[in-house]
Amino acid sequence: MRVPVTSRRSLRRRALGARVLWNAAEILVTLGVVLMLLVVHQLWWTNRQAREGAEREVQALEREWEGSQGEGGSPSVSGGGSGGTSSTGGTSSTGGTSSTSGAGGSSRSGQRSGSPASPATPARQPRWDQAYAILTIPRLGLRIPVAEGISKPNVLNKGYAGHYPDTAQPGQAGNFALAGHRNTHGEPFRYINRLREGDRIEVETRAAGYTYVVDRTIPQTAPRDGGVIRDVPRSLVHPRYGYSDPGYYLTLTTCTPEYTSKYRLVVWGKLASMRPR
Asked: CA 92, CA 260: separation in Å to the nearest integer?
């Protein structure tokens, strides 16, 4: 009976192979942990940070408005701003938001008819990235600041709704158009697909509160569909969606499906009432 003999060279090869496999396993485990931490950061930590920051900003705005009224100052509605950096093409790409590019709004002249209220005339422009209004959607239990512009780092990633430059301000004739993340960074617009015709959307400013009523929804359109935020909103991709007459509109935009930025989801509302503060 012969006894098998293992050479030193064979043993070294086996040892080397075992070390390579062990090192590869360590690298894979490390990569898995890093990826898991990144996912936790994006899906949990950014939401927590943004929601807490947005809540503090809402409270700060309310204190500021109450203080200005207590001092007897004449309140004013913030007006539309232009300029600044905006995120084009839409939603926070980390699964999040929504900005529809290519606004191309039409002139607002001749659009003052058909108002259900007498909205105040804006007196000043909000600074770029400044939170100047509060958006409340009772059905979703949502209450967040509205800031000027749709910059991701300075507005959307803070959990705010961002106001599209060169669209109307709250209560103005035309289209008050907003963008918000659907996933990560507070994901304030995650469930706007649940809004139905007749749901209320409240917008508060220093001078007044405005109630819009949900009217129509586009379940899916292209990021380049700038018609949805024009003064008289109408989809350029799906022309059957939209309006033909001037009015007082509200538009909410975000990304769809969830965790992608491939398409945009759009919700439209009409101004129903206005109340001075």
From this structure: 9
SS3 53: helix
Domains and CATH numbers, the chain: 50-276 (2.40.260.10)
pLDDT band at 21 (very low <50, low <70, confident <90, very high): confident
Please tell me which residue in 181, 182, 185, 206 is annotated as part of the active site.
Answer: 181
CA dist 262 and 98 (Å) reads 10
pLDDT of 71 = 61
- Give the model's confidence band at 36: pLDDT under 50 very low, under 70 low, under 90 confident, else very high: low
pTM of the model: 0.74
Report which residue type is found at 232: V
Q: Which pLDDT does position 16 carry in this prediction?
A: 77
181 is annotated as an active-site residue? yes
Catalytic site residue from 185, 190, 230, 255: 255
How many residues does this entry show for the chain?
A: 277
